[in-house]
Design goal:
By secondary structure, the protein is mostly helical. The chain has 22 helices and twelve strands.
Length: about 650
């Protein structure tokens, strides 16, 4: 058994796979004190421990596809002619199942032991977690079994029916309203709340705000299908007496565990021990963040390998011209030609760059202006001594320590320099629904016509401020490389190195930049709101993908962050959902799966190689999930 400092777990063996033989042993268990069942508090802790929207396969397979299609991230090889292909995908589409198992187990416990009122707060919280996961699970898959799912052991069907996306949205909105009512009751509290509730420590007011705010995640998905209902939901959320998430103290930010004891897999503490396939930053995204002085660029992406010591190493080797062009233009040299200081925005800003995304197949075209510098540099970015050679990264990748807690980092040093590493494993913190997301949604709805208590600009500026602050907080909790001065000083090597920590006045400066300030036409203001939603979702490829689909932002021809149309690939060939495979004839759910696919108008891909499907991007663009049917085409801009 694993022991966790943040979690009190006892007698949990087999809690979700409890035998369904209650009737067979009824006579032996007539005294409820002798029945061996998990306590509701234990079920609740285990539900939070299993809560996951971004497990390993999501990052290894799905994220790169979603970022590529939304043009918010790209592989180190840039865009290729095959970027519209789906290929392998991960486990997204079933994360909510674990939440339903625990929720339904508690529901049965309450019914069996007549604790109808006592444990309703636990049930409501577990219901919120199930809905949170399920919203994201239908984003790429459409209709899902939910109402009848995970009820077999309680007399439910072996083959639960598929519920439509519309039915699910209506159900979840109703359930979230009921959950809010439970949280608001004065006599409702969670026993053992401090130790059993990892997220809000049993604070019913915060759980109520979360449930109320989660409705907005549904409302934005509804807008292109039912505008009036979406606006009504936004108005109800903003005016609800329970309030909505409007402070970083309300944010759903937590670590599942802070201490690990044992020899078993400890992914609950560190998220995953597997390597991730995160790709690289987009040059357009990085450039937009730099132009708008966005501090989040430092928390989402990694510094390149060219600190001032490495630059001086190239100068000493008489190879200054071999440096990347954007590095050279930010170097100020003294009279002797040596490194003097950083120009431009200075450290740490000048250490961020992405892969060019405005040309297809630039990595294989020798006449491309990017070919040699970015994709085929050979030994250009190497430094060597007789005994060692080191290569230095030209572009920024995604900051992996924001996604998992077991990452070793080696600082860039000269070939004959010291080996300086950060090998500490840290508990992993992640942010789920936050006040930033909520306020940016309200800014959007205000611009779209909702009658809300505050102006669009008020929601917008609060959303940006909250977003930068929570990214800074989580970066500090995850102890990312270079985060604070202590980290930099403890590994002193480059006198010009600067920490990444948020500095006083940076958010105000960002809000005053031309690319951020909320001004101009309704379209121009909406574009800025959607762009800030995309930036806020930098660690949420699924939400970025949903936002780009439903908004048509990034926009083709935008002067802020353009969506690129390649002559060789039509935007109508970029997928809007994942591929569905034909169910096996031996699958008992096959008739229900086929019915759901037919109802949605989805054709299936034929698994040709055992791993990759052959549905074309144009099919996956045309055959859309219900909430996406009336949404704008890629890069088209919002409908309003």
């Amino acid at each position: 058994m694993k022991l966790y400092k943040s979690i009190l777990i006892a007698s949990l063996a087999g809690m979700v796979t409890l035998t369904g033989c209650r009737d067979d042993f009824a006579e032996m268990n007539t005294d409820k004190s002798t029945v061996s069942v998990p306590e509701p508090s234990q079920l609740f802790s285990m539900a939070q421990l299993q809560f996951q929207t971004n497990e390993y396969t999501y990052w290894f397979y799905n994220s790169k596809l979603l970022q590529r299609w939304s043009q918010m991230g790209i592989g180190t090889g840039g865009y290729t002619g095959s970027f519209t292909e789906v290929g392998n995908t991960g486990g997204q589409g079933s994360q909510y199942i674990d939440m339903l198992k625990y929720r339904n187990e508690l529901e049965n416990y309450i019914a069996t032991f007549d604790d109808t009122e006592k444990y309703q707060a636990y049930y409501a919280a577990m219901d919120v977690l199930a809905i949170y996961c399920a919203i994201m699970d239908v984003d790429l898959s459409g209709d899902r079994p939910y109402i009848e799912a995970c009820r077999l052991k309680f007399g439910g069907p072996l083959t639960p029916k598929y519920d439509t996306v519309e039915e699910l949205y209506n159900l979840w909105l109703q359930n979230l309203g009921e959950d809010v009512t439970v949280f608001q009751r004065n006599d409702q509290e969670m026993p053992n709340k401090a130790s059993q509730d990892l997220i809000f420590k049993g604070d019913m007011a915060k759980w109520a705000k979360l449930a109320n705010s989660l409705k907005l995640k549904i409302a934005v998905r509804l807008y292109n299908t039912d505008k009036s209902k979406a606006l009504q939901i936004a108005q109800e959320v903003a005016n609800a007496s329970v309030g909505y998430m409007d402070s970083n103290d309300d944010d759903m930010v937590f670590a599942k565990a802070t201490t690990y004891v044992g020899s078993e897999n400890n992914d609950y503490l560190y998220n995953t021990g597997n390597g991730l396939n995160l790709g690289a930053a987009s040059a357009d995204v990085i450039n937009f963040m730099l132009k708008t002085k966005d501090p989040r660029v430092r928390f989402v992406y990694t510094k390149n390998g060219f600190n001032s010591t490495i630059v001086q190493g190239f100068i000493d080797d008489d190879r200054f011209d071999d440096l990347p062009s954007y590095v050279k233009e930010n170097v100020v040299r003294d009279a002797q030609g040596n490194f003097q200081e950083w120009g431009g925005m200075g450290e740490p800003w000048i250490r961020y760059a992405g892969v060019p995304v405005d040309e297809l197949d630039a990595a294989v075209h020798e006449n491309s202006p990017y070919y040699e510098e970015y994709f085929n540099p050979g030994t250009r970015y190497n430094l060597s001594t007789p005994d060692a050679t080191k290569s230095y990264s030209i572009v920024s990748g995604f900051q992996e320590e924001m996604i998992r807690g077991r990452v070793d980092f080696t600082l860039p040093t000269l070939p004959d320099g010291p080996v300086i590493q950060d090998t500490d494993d840290n508990p992993w913190y992640f942010m789920y629904l936050t006040s930033a997301e909520v306020n940016l949604y309200l800014a959007e709805f205000s611009l779209l016509g909702a009658n809300l208590p505050k102006s669009a600009n008020e929601y917008y500026t609060r959303g940006i401020r909250f977003s930068v602050e929570v990214y800074d907080r989580v970066a500090g909790l995850n102890k990312i490389p270079y985060y604070d001065q202590t980290w930099v000083s403890a590994r002193a090597y480059d006198a010009n190195e600067k920490p990444l920590q948020l500095q006083a006045g940076e958010i105000d400066a960002m809000l005053e930049t031309e690319g951020v300030k909320l001004e101009g036409s309704q379209l121009e203001q909406l574009e800025k709101v959607y762009l800030q939603q995309l930036m806020n979702f930098s660690l949420y490829p699924d939400d970025q993908y949903v936002t780009a689909r439903r908004s048509g932002v990034p926009m083709v021809g935008s002067e802020l962050l353009p969506f690129h149309v390649f002559p060789q690939v039509a935007v109508t060939g970029i997928p809007r959902r994942f591929e569905m495979s034909e169910p096996s004839v031996t699958d008992k759910m096959a008739p229900f799966i086929k019915e759901a696919l037919a109802r949605q108008g989805f054709t299936t891909g034929v698994n040709q190689s055992g791993s990759a499907f052959n549905t074309t991007g144009s099919v996956l663009n045309t055959e859309r999930i219900w909430f996406d049917k009336n949404a704008p085409q890629w890069g088209e801009g919002p409908k309003f």
